């Protein structure tokens, strides 16, 4: 059973808040971004995911205004954004290393955006206090940033950005400097904070689990081009390309030959919508199961030897070697992981590339 | 973790140096300042506070000290006005010319102080470069005589000589400002001008204080510039010390003047060091 997966970007409903149109950017002779078109809806949590060097931070900096595009346009709320200097954009950024002002207290850091925009003195204090309360940092108002831990600096940076009530908040790998436990906690807080304030978040990360856990949609960037923009569920279950399939989670990429609607991989074959010729299928490890006594009629059943194991706690990854020599990775629940030779049923394989 | 011999080897020589060539001479100087000179020009080793009383009662000393401070203050302000914009430009806006510009500021430091001070004589003299040019351009008909041998000439010369000393610490402190702070400021709605006043300037204050201290203290004790271009009205406190020690052969009085200067500078350095610490956020 094969599902055809086109570039499955479910377009955001109504008028998008941010619209990036055919943007390109290069530094010297190095092309960093090309042909980027992306829309962000109001109140959406969109993650730009990619390896280091994929151009994700550059894309964020284009929206913030620290770089200007070589080609294309960026619009926000019906207004051309890329022609404005950063201090005229209703966009705020949470920087990777927080970039808190070391000579100002926590309170003054958060008040900075209000003060430079000449808000009345009496209005500043309640707004700053409200923002600090939102990130549970009200008791640190007088502290110097250098006295705070990484997680606390992170919260102050968030409050400093959110106090300005931007239409759009940009977050440049804000959690990458935190240790694993704090990271998990901050992920949860970020998500609930975003729901609370209803501001659109554009979040940059290289961590696919983080992207999956937090986002409404994920935009996967590879070498300066958008590979796929979709909900976490879609991007996992219906990857548009072999790269997406292998970048998000673990998978078996099967190079097959399609003849008359059937994809052949070694001795196994699936029904497939692709036209005849070579193709690549993605078969997730959890889609392969130990075969029951009487497997369903049209399922793909095969025998294999277990030639490697990687214990994960609740589950275990097994390396299977088929009689014909091919190998597959399968994820099974703990109690199955004893026998060394089994029958298996392979489930859905997803076509990720034709005529590769 | 280092062994005893190693620790002795690295601590004893500098301690010895400081003791022999700084502390002992200062002690001798301090002792001299309480002695006196006889009619026959011999040092009399009787303790007296007469030298210090002379300093306070004779208006000449206070007058020259006051003038030295005014000159040093003017040099400091001018060197800051020249050095800060230059450092700012090189640190934030020069891309291709950054290291070339930096070298250009540094190179004069390799040229002898004497040569640079002397150069101002040829520029400011009544038949000097400046006057010749002004007459040639018909800006003036007679050479301007007050340019050379005046406090103005001393200020110009010292500003030229000490601007690199102001530039260097300011440049270093500007280079240490993370550029992400400027981006954060712009991101929060501050224009480049506001960003300068609220972020760049406060964070470069340690460099400004260090540079100003250099310029002020070095100018205050300067001896050659007033000697070469100062004339009678451009005399500074070091020239007084020189003439009291030399021509007047009154070592005890000279020692008293020197000691007062030393004390003043040490107090000043303490104050500026505290200020610098107050504004450091490393």
Q: Tags for this entry?
A:
heterodimer, A: 356 residues, alpha+beta, six-stranded mixed beta sheet, 8 helices, 24% helix, disordered N terminus, B: 282 residues, mainly alpha, two-stranded antiparallel ribbon, 12 helices, 74% helix, 1% strand, globular
What's the arrangement of secondary structure elements?
The complex is a heterodimer of chains A (356) and B (282).
Chain A: E1 2-4, E2 18-27, E3 30-40, E4 45-50, H1 56-64, E5 71-76, E6 79-80, E7 91-94, H2 106-116, H3 121-134, H4 150-162, E8 168-172, H5 180-197, E9 200-205, H6 208-214, E10 217-222, E11 225-230, H7 232-237, H8 242-247, E12 252-259, E13 262-265, E14 268-271, E15 277-283, E16 288-290, E17 300-311, E18 315-322, E19 327-333, E20 341-346, E21 349-354
Parallel strand pairs in A: 1-21, 4-9, 4-10, 7-8, 8-9
Antiparallel strand pairs in A: 2-3, 2-5, 5-6, 10-11, 12-13, 12-15, 13-14, 15-21, 16-20, 17-18, 17-20, 18-19
Chain B: H1 4-32, E1 36-37, E2 43-44, H2 50-57, H3 59-93, H4 98-106, H5 113-124, H6 129-136, H7 151-175, H8 179-187, H9 192-220, H10 224-230, H11 237-245, H12 251-278
Antiparallel strand pairs in B: 1-2
Helix pairs in contact in B: 1-12, 2-12, 3-7, 3-9, 5-7, 5-10, 7-9, 7-10, 8-9, 9-12, 11-12
> What topology, given as strand order, has the largest sheet of chain B?
1-2
Q: How many E strands of chain B?
A: 2
Would you tell me the overall average pLDDT of chain B?
92
The gyration radius over C-alpha positions of chain A equals 24 Å
Helix content of chain A: 10-25%
Distance between the termini of chain B: 28 Å
């Amino acid at each position: 059973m094969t599902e055809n997966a086109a570039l499955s970007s479910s377009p955001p409903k109504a008028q998008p808040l941010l619209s990036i149109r055919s943007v390109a950017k290069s530094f010297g002779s190095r092309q960093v971004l090309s042909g980027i078109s992306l829309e962000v809806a109001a109140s959406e949590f969109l993650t730009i995911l990619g390896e280091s060097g994929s151009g994700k931070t550059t894309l964020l900096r284009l929206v913030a205004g620290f770089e200007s595009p070589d080609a294309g346009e960026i619009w926000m709320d019906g207004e051309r954004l890329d022609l404005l200097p950063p201090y005229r954009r209703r966009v705020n950024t949470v920087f990777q290393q927080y970039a808190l002002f070391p000579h100002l207290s926590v309170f003054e850091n958060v008040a900075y955006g209000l003060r430079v925009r000449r808000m009345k003195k009496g209005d500043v204090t309640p707004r700053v206090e409200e923002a600090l309360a939102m990130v549970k940092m009200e008791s640190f108002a007088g502290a110097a940033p250098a006295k705070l831990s990484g997680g606390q600096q992170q919260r102050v940076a968030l409050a400093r950005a959110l106090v300005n009530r931007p239409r759009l908040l940009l977050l440049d790998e804000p959690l990458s400097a935190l240790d694993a436990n704090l990271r998990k906690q901050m992920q949860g807080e970020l998500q609930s904070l975003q729901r609370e304030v209803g501001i659109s978040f554009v979040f940059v990360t290289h961590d696919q689990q983080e992207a999956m856990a937090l986002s409404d949609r994920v935009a996967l960037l590879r070498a300066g081009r958008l590979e796929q923009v979709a909900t976490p569920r879609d991007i996992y279950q219906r990857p548009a390309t072999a790269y997406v399939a292998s970048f998000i989670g673990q998978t078996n990429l099967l190079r097959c030959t399609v003849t008359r609607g059937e994809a052949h991989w070694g001795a196994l074959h699936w029904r497939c919508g692709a036209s005849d010729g070579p193709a690549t299928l993605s078969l997730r490890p959890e889609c392969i199961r130990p075969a029951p006594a009487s497997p369903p009629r049209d399922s793909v059943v095969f025998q294999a030897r277990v030639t490697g194991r990687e214990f994960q706690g609740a589950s275990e990854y097994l390396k299977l070697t088929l009689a014909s020599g091919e190998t597959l990775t399968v994820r099974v629940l703990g109690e199955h992981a004893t026998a060394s030779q089994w029958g298996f049923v392979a489930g859905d394989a997803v076509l990720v590339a034709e005529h590769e | 973790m280092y062994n005893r011999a190693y620790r002795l080897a690295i601590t004893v020589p500098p301690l010895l140096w400081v003791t022999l060539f700084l502390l002992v001479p200062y002690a001798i100087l301090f002792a001299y300042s309480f002695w006196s000179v006889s009619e026959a020009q011999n040092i009399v080793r009787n303790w007296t506070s007469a030298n210090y009383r002379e300093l306070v009662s004779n208006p000449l000393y206070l007058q020259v000290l006051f003038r030295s401070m005014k000159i040093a203050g003017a040099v400091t302000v001018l060197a800051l006005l020249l050095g800060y914009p230059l450092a700012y430009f090189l640190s934030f806006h020069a891309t291709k010319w950054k290291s070339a510009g930096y070298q250009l500021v540094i190179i004069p430091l390799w040229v002898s102080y004497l040569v640079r001070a002397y150069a101002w004589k040829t520029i400011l003299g009544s038949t000097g470069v400046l006057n010749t040019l002004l007459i040639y351009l018909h800006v003036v008909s007679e050479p301007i005589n007050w340019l050379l041998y005046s406090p103005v000439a001393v200020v110009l010369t010292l500003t030229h000589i000490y601007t690199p000393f102001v530039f260097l610490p300011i440049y270093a402190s500007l280079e240490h400002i993370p550029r992400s702070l400027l981006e954060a400021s712009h991101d929060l709605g501050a224009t480049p001008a506001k960003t300068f006043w609220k972020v760049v300037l406060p964070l470069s204050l340690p460099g400004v204080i260090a540079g100003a201290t250099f310029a002020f203290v070095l100018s205050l004790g300067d001896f050659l510039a007033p000697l070469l271009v100062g004339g009678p009205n451009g005399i500074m406190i070091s020239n007084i010390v020189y003439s009291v020690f030399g021509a007047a052969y009154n070592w005890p009085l000279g020692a008293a003047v020197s000691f007062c200067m030393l004390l003043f500078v040490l107090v000043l350095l303490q104050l500026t060091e505290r200020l610098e610490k107050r504004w450091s956020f490393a």
